[in-house]
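Please study the protein below:
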Amino acid sequence: MNVIETQELRKVYRGRAVVDGLTLNVGAGEVFGFLGPNGAGKSTTVKMLLGLVLPSSGQVSVLGGSPADPAVRARLGFLPEQFRFQLWMTGEEFLKFHGRLAGMTASDLRVRVPQVLEEVGLGGRGGEQLGGYSKGMLQRCGLAGAILARPRLVFLDEPTSALDPIGRVEVREIIERLRGEGVAVFLNSHLLSEVEQVCDRVAF
């Protein structure tokens, strides 16, 4: 089963096509790399796949339905490239807030929040304010938010951009663990070396 299918997907801004004729498919449990230089339309494509931007033409199916469907969105995880964090919150408060937005129960969050903090290398740091986190720690917290609600498909937009070499290895390990759990990952990047190491297939 494909978790993403597009046919001739197109997006026009101010008379200019930033995505033009994109046809691709991503299978369940697959790590799919989406490569291209800055300004190539990668982030616009991700926003169309998430239902945040409407395509000008073409067809898109995500998890067998429309990305505009709340039931589909509830099974998606997303880490944007430049996420604006609520810096007055602690890491735990941030995750609980986003977990509630995703429809998670308080009892599930009590178990799940410490789990994901540990998974991304922030175990024991959840009580600290995000304003005191380094860029790398913020990126890890954003990654924790993306996998918090146990999604079936995760979109990662330049997930290692603020990380040191050790952090990049840890992100690769998280991606491989998601693949092992049958979760599909759509990895948006301009780093060929990163994509080579973790992806099953790549689109340019």
